[in-house]
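User: Could you check the structure of this?
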Amino acid sequence: MTDWNDRWNGAERLPAVSCRASRARALGWLAAAGALMASCGPPAPPPGPVLDANQVANAARRGNALTEPVRVMFGWSLTEPDVRLSGRGVLRMAPPYRARLDLFTGSGEGVVSAALVDDGMRLPPGVAAEFLPPPALFWAAVGVFRPGATALVVDAKGDPDSEIQLRYRPPGGGELHFRLEGNVLTGVELLRGGQVVERVEADPDVEGGFPRETVYRHMGEFRELKFELESVDRVEDYPEGIWTPGT
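Assistant: Sure, the predicted structure tokens are below.
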């Protein structure tokens, strides 16, 4: 004979087991949903404007171009692990891309003379000036946008109302990252293997067109070369011979 007490007790236990399982599943779903919501965080901000890299480059070229012959006077200092030098210098420039740099000590002794024409550095015979930045960074240091005739523009990112980064790939490898505020050049970095190896930072003088202060750093060689603007004078055109130091 069936034990009705056992059947009744079993019938009572079955719903209880089912309820406990349902509660466990519900709690699991709630925990998973809470974790998902926590991981999502606030909604992502809307994407910035899509920039045309060529248009940005053309605007940078126009906004940071040399338009007339000038003579720039400045103070300078060089810091390396075993070197400390300082003095005054003169920079003579003529459009489109010609520059002659002469550095002197405080007592007037010549330290180096160098000319940059387009993308080529010119030095007197037997003279090395390894502490000077490479051409693209040299031009940026004197307020001129010149990535190089054969450098390839990669892209442009940022906000036209604040800061834009314009990337180039130079023929020698690596990348050049130019920083622009509006159309004004404020710095450039040379990267190799994803790491910054050389950098120029410029404090632009919007009215004068030349940086008030420029700092060039070579990370691997712990070198810092600083220029501090003193004066800018518009002049007549220079004789062709000054662009070839030592002749």
